[in-house]
Structures are given as structure tokens and as C-alpha cells.
Amino acid sequence: MSTADDMDDTDDMETWLLEAGDAIIEKKAAQGEASLSPPERAIYCMWALDYAVRNAGSLDALEDVHETAIEELAAFARAQKIDMLSTLLDMAADEDEEAFVDAYYEQFDTVCTELRRLNETRH
Question: SS3 sequence, 32-83?
Fold first, then answer.
């Protein structure tokens, strides 16, 4: 697969996460947080994490968007045995935020593909 194809796949996953996150935010607003399934909650957490990383370049922005996103997403990843996501989120607790952000971009497509698959299989 070429680099251009890799970029297209990542763009597809970015678009998917934005659209899925928006739909989940609307559902949460209309029906309450309790209406969200575990995969939807995980996608919302990933959306918040993505917002912080891409827009602020820092995890500090999570305080304003969804303060417990990393912890909730890590618990979901462990429960679902999504090892790559668990390892990535463990990095978020380390002091080297730059290394976490680099790894985040490298693993984004794979992680989102897994979240998407889990959400689609629950329907």
C-alpha cells in the first residue's frame, strides 16, 4: 500500500470518528449518557482524545472536553482486549507527551478501525 493510500485510509478514519462522535454527542444530548452503549462511550472518549490531540496538541484540553476520557477508554480497551489501544493509553500517563502524540498519530487508523468494528458488531 502506498503512502497516499495510507493517508486516504487515515482521512477515512478521521472522518468516521468525527461523524460517529457527532452522532453520539447528539444521542447523548437527546437521550442521556445512560443511553450510550459501551462501544459508543468508547468512541466518544476517542473523539474527545482526538479533539485534544489534533486541536490543542496536548492532553490538557481533555479537562474541558471529557476529563475522564483516557481512563474510560483504557478500561474499555482492557475489557475488549484491544492491546494496542491499552498500550497507547498507558503512554498517556507517562511524562513524555510528545512521544504519546507521535504514537497516537501512528496508531490512530488501527485503533479507530477496531472501535468501528466493535460498534458495528453490536447492532
Answer: CHHHCCHHHHHHHHHHHHHHHHHHHCCHHHHHHHCCCHHHHHHHHHHHHCCH
